[in-house]
Amino acid sequence: TASLLLMGYFAIGVVHYMMVEGWSFDEAVYFIIVTLTTIGYGDYVPTTTESKLFTGFYAQLGMLAIGAALVILFTSMFEHQQKLLMNVIRPSENPQDVHTAQLRQNFILVTRIIGLLLFYTGVVMIGTLFYHRHEGLSMVDSFYMMNITLSSVGYGDVSPSTWQGRVFFICTVPPGYVAGVQFVTDVLKTIINRRKEKLLAEMLGMKKTLRAAEVTSWDVDGDSQVNEMEFTLGMLKKMGKVSQYDLDKIKQRFKEVDSDKNGALEIGELDYVCRKDGKRTLSVETVEGSGRNKSVMFTSVQNTPLHTQSASDTSASGNVFIMKTVNSLGEK
Question: Under CATH, what is the fold of the domain 242-331?
């Protein structure tokens, strides 16, 4: 999405400057980058009325486009993991209260955005009229200069030339510039908050689902109750920590090692497999279709981390084997 946004922004600018200004492709791209980064060398500047009006808006939209693209890029990197975390909301917090607080914050932001936009627009309009009247600039040149100035690009092709113009600049440009920066910041905050709101809504929906039929579907052994092991595996799947493919592979490996097919893995069986392979590890394929394996360490008779029932227990059930494997995979 971020790439498409920037590509679209560049495409519009390139087409305009190539058609209206007659620049080559590299000149158009060069000018756009100089504008977006607010370098403003001044070696290339718009020369037509249409181009000046276009650039006045284009420079302002550029700040929003870059900011929005960065927000999309960086939040998408963490969004997937955030969706999987059920404890984003602290247990002491009421999810509905969090949602209400978020709505209140959004309202404040939107109100401030509207105020900043009105103030910024007012500065541009007043400046346009002032420089048209006192500096003798055309309305287009005045409008163009105000937008390029407030976006901090400043090509240098049009600038105040009288003492009245400089005084007006001193009084209006600093607050107008601050308003523009704050406007962009608040717009980006609103985008981020909307993403958080969407995440919160999905999490609330997930919690509601967990109270209903989905939990009962985790009853693998069909005894009409969900034990701790089944609940843990179900939650791990729900949170994306482990996939059904991973669990199927682990179960398949357990059956291969369980030579007597009694549903429990004696340490002797595990030792035999490890010695047979000349290793002290069991490989479990965990990346579907990739052909790559992860090695999960299970120690032999001398050290028995698979023991979870009691000190004298010398076997591990399928569930224990699965949980040990999942835990080991998570540490890789």
Answer: Recoverin; domain 1 (1.10.238)
